[in-house]
Amino acid sequence: MELGHYGEFAPERGNWTCKAPPGLTFACLRPMAMSEMFPFSVVLVAAVLIVFALLKQFVLENYMMHKDSLHGRAYSRLSPRDQRTLVNHHLSLVMKVCIFVIGIYPFCALILGHNFNTRFIARLTIGDVLFLCSHTYTAIYLFELCYRQGISYITWVHHSCTILIAQLALAFTNTHRAQDTTIEMVLCLVWGVFDILSEAITHLTMVLYRLYPTRHVFLYRALRTAFVVSVLSTTIETAVVGWFYGALFRRWSTLNKALTPMLFVAFVGAQIWSAICLWRIGSAKGVLMRGGEEDAAGTVGVSVREDKKGAK
Question: Is the predicted pLDDT of residue 6 greater than 50, yes or no?
């Protein structure tokens, strides 16, 4: 398959011709399979979920949370629902940081115009690494949906859409028959990077919220910081995705032209709701910080149930 100017099909030409918009070198990457490991996708997701279950039971629940430590004391005073939420915050924080550290170099290489088959380490390509990171990322949300109790509707929509979008993008890159498979995968990776940046600090903040419930000044500042990061991340993400979408509009298929804005609005809506929840919890801590414990008690109860997309 040959692509002409901005992805127009040019089968009569014997070479690859493409003109990328300024700053979007990846737009002219030849469509190809992201990784040769695609046939093992189900096995990979299953293996990651097993690892999560082992970490949850034998490291977090049976060791860290039951020891005579800060974590153990915080864990023992929580309800079963909040105990699961705390465990999930720990697991999600660690795994998302690992994904970011491992995947940021291959991601940047892809953005700068290196295709999926570029060597990374030994026999691994940047496509292999991004493939593994993408499956691990979706497994985090699968595990949370199955493990946590009382998840809000907004969280369900956010997590479910994230899983489906990521897996569909991976499947489409394996077919590499459409002209927009690579740029669609890049767009999904951009969403993932911004999601990790905003979510990681929120996971950390909510862990601190459980560990130090009476340190109101510290928690107020932490929650306000998480709110600012979430708002900035969502704003920058919207600008970047809007730029990608507009600059490459002629490259998108009709289906993606319609679905991308709809899914992105839902995705951003969930992030905005998360920021609102962080603001509410921070406001409650601000009241407590100023000595209004009785006035803030009801607000804290409501805010805790709403924390990060419904106690995410």
Answer: no
